[in-house]
UniProtKB/TrEMBL annotation:
Lineage of the organism: Bacteria, Bacillati, Actinomycetota, Actinomycetes, Kitasatosporales
Name recorded for this polypeptide: Transcriptional regulatory protein CutR
Source organism (scientific name): Streptomyces netropsis
Transcription regulation recorded as keyword: yes
UniProt-recorded Gene Ontology molecular function terms: phosphorelay response regulator activity; transcription cis-regulatory region binding
Source organism superkingdom: Bacteria
GO BP term, pick one: regulation of DNA-templated transcription
Amino acid sequence: MRVLVVEDEQLLADAVATGLRREAMAVDVVYDGAAALERIAVNDYDVIVLDRDLPLVHGDDVCRKVVELGMPTRVLMLTASGDVSDRVEGLEIGADDYLPKPFAFSELTARVRALGRRTTVALPPVLERAGIKLDPNRREVFRDGREVQLAPKEFAVLEVLMRSEGAVVSAEQLLEKAWDENTDPFTNVVRVTVMTLRRKLGEPAVIVTVPGSGYRI
């Protein structure tokens, strides 16, 4: 899952991004509304965690732009105000969910994951395919009943492949969904991660390489 965090309180923004990365999400961070508009113009995000009171371009206008562009991206709006009228106004602008500050990080994570599931065809919370059982909320993976310990990026790649339900996923798509914008697009990090993931999942191999196209399960 790829997430954009838009928050002008830099310590908070960086803390949220770090926490979401530990949950195997690819996260980009910006600190004002203008930068947010630049990012959504060039990158596809599953979820935007959007502070409402932003400098340069207000969060409401960023949200309106997402709606105007018809993007499948879901918006979780943050605000220091817990007033009901503010929540209603944010939802009417086009936000998909609303979370007042201060918030518990566990709740933020749960809401981001719930919104992320709504950007694609609805799938069960626990994914199962080819003897693999993946629970995104618990960050657990089992292969034929055996628990498999995965690093965050390995987990993210496996989740993308599982969600594709047998379709081929290109290296470029994996890079886009599992890594942030600071990753060199010419790196071999996808190939190396898939190799490590195959080894950890064990035999028989379930991740198939489709020459010239990508990978599938």
